[in-house]
């Protein structure tokens, strides 16, 4: 599918930040913060309609794109004259079934968006990030990239893959002017993410946050991503794990509220 955009060449004098998965949640919140920090933000998501209003609001560019569609990703990359920051945020969880009974199609979809999507966009934009002379790649990982939990199987596997991309890429780019930042949040209250994971079951989705005083918000994560991106170019926040105070570890959650 040919990518669609509101044609306006991003860039000019301002640094350009590409944000995938920008139509909601962490991506949307980060796009707002990066724009406020002075970036010309290129908003990427499948739902172009949802991006348009945000693009207008923050003065960015909306680009309708499925990150799992490699030809479309390549066409998108060819359209950009400059890229300083790539925030690989597009990701999702589908299903919460045990490994024994999970739907392989859910696993495939999780691998496609979390791992292959990150690979496609990173490969396509890397030459421009290097050419910027001070590029930044942010990879949206998760505490699921480090710790397994029941019912998490496919998502845990996919996020371990996402973490592996970040760790490998940092080594491979050690002599290039591009840093690789991995942000790994724990419990973030992003209702769309949880609803998608639980097949639209609102009751189960709200139970995820039951009794937790203050789960992280999308804006908490966006604040952290923006902080990491705006450090001086020689400072690399390799890996940052972010949790709400009520979540000491994946299974150790204070639900007394
Ligand atoms: C989402 C965090 O705990 O649901 O990336 O795996 S968790």
Concise synopsis of the structure shown:
This protein has 257 residues and is α/β, with parallel strands linked by helices.
Q: In CATH, what is the homologous superfamily?
A: NAD(P)-binding Rossmann-like Domain
Topology order in helix (H) and strand (E) letters: EEHEHEHEHEHEHHHEEE
The assigned structural class equals: alpha/beta
List of distinct ligands in this structure: 2-hydroxyethylsulfonic acid
Number of helices: 8
Straight-line N-to-C gap: 47 Å
Main-sheet strand order equals: 1-4-3-2-5-6-7-8
Low-confidence stretches: none
Q: Main sheet?
A: 8 strands, mixed
**Overall mean confidence score, pLDDT:** 95
Our estimate of the beta-strand percent is: 15-25%
Domains (count): 1
* Quaternary structure: single chain
GO molecular function, one term: oxidoreductase activity, acting on the CH-OH group of donors, NAD or NADP as acceptor
Keywords: Oxidoreductase
Family: Belongs to the short-chain dehydrogenases/reductases (SDR) family.
Organism: Nakamurella panacisegetis
Task: Write a structural description.
There is one protein chain. This protein starts with a strand and ends with a strand. The strands form two sheets. It has an eight-stranded mixed β-sheet, sandwiched between helices. A two-stranded antiparallel ribbon has the order 9-10. The protein is globular, with a radius of gyration of 18 Å. The chain has 257 residues and is of the alpha/beta class. 42% of the residues lie in helices and 17% in strands. The chain has a single domain, classed as 3-Layer(aba) Sandwich (Rossmann fold). The model has no long low-confidence stretch (mean pLDDT 95). The structure holds 2-hydroxyethylsulfonic acid (8X3). 2-hydroxyethylsulfonic acid binds next to loops.
């Amino acid at each position: 599918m040919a990518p669609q955009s509101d044609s306006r060449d991003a860039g000019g004098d301002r640094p350009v930040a590409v944000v995938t998965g920008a139509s909601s949640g962490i991506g949307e919140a980060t796009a707002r913060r990066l724009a406020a920090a002075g970036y010309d933000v290129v908003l990427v998501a499948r739902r172009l309609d949802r991006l348009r209003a945000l693009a207008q609001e923050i003065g960015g560019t909306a680009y309708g794109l499925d990150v799992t569609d490699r030809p479309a990703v390549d066409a998108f990359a060819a359209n950009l004259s400059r890229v300083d920051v790539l925030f690989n945020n597009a990701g999702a969880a589908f299903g919460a079934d045990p490994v024994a009974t999970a739907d392989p199609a859910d696993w495939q979809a999780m691998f496609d968006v979390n791992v292959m999507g990150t690979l496609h966009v990173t490969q396509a934009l890397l030459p421009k990030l290097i050419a910027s002379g001070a590029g930044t790649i942010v990879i949206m990982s998760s505490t699921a990239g480090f710790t397994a939990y029941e019912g998490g199987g496919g998502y845990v596997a996919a996020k371990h893959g996402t973490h592996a991309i970040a760790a490998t890429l940092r080594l491979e780019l050690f002599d290039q002017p591009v840093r690789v930042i991995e942000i790994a949040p724990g419990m973030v209250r992003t209702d769309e993410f949880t609803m998608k994971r639980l097949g639209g079951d609102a009751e189960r989705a709200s139970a995820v946050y039951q009794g937790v005083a203050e789960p992280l918000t999308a804006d908490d994560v966006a604040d952290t991503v923006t902080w990491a991106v705006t450090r001086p170019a020689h400072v690399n926040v390799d890996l940052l794990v972010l949790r709400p105070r009520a979540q000491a570890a994946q299974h150790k959650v204070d639900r007394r509220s």
